[in-house]
Amino acid sequence: MHRIARSSCAVLACLALPGCLSMGVMQRATGPRYRFGRMTEFTDAALVGKDVFVQVSVLRPERTEPAPFVLKIATDEKYWAQSHSVPQASFMDGVMLAHVPATMLLAPGGIPAGGICLPIEPVEIRRLEELKAIGKPPSHGIRVLAVHYRPAADDLPMFSDRRRGVPPPEDPLLAILGPTIGGEPSPILVSDIQDGHGTRRAWLILMPFAAVADAAVLPIEFIGGLAAAE
Fold first, then answer.
1. Using CB atoms within 10 A as the burial measure, which of 49, 128, 130, 208 is most buried?
2. Overall pTM > 0.85
3. Is-cis flag, bond preceding 137, omega within 30?
């Protein structure tokens, strides 16, 4: 009975191991591979009600020239950056960067008439600490900033999403600052435009080899499971 219990524990230990090659290859082949477009310029901005419309030039993947679009940002939506970011918002030491899906972009003439024109303020920063301070001192109205910043070499380790294929922020970033009513300012920072995704089906070619490797390693894992059950 003791031997049966040990064998059962060994089998369960093998089943619990997450590192099989076949699973890794499958995840690599079917997991999304996101594409991103880079914002190159902001030319006009207007406030319509509580929505900010910004004319932005976007260099989309596999294009050689940027194209004009309009991006609409609802300043009264508390979690706009989280809910309008694909695959999800990125963080650099607490600074949240939104990746706006291309489906949200409007045609170049998408700024409604009758809005309040907003100046686009260029801001030059050199370090992450300066980016974290965007929005200070407090603002009494809506501001639109073209933030010129590329992470320095020692800032880049703060951006962990590169493992998921998400590019680090590039110059320029779009910042929307709302009125500060008590507490810390919470600017909306847009890093880039997420322009669809694909998969890497070619990795499936490796599945037979991964299966053979898993079968070869299974006895070793079983023996290890027996030893762990002692």
1. 128
2. no
3. yes
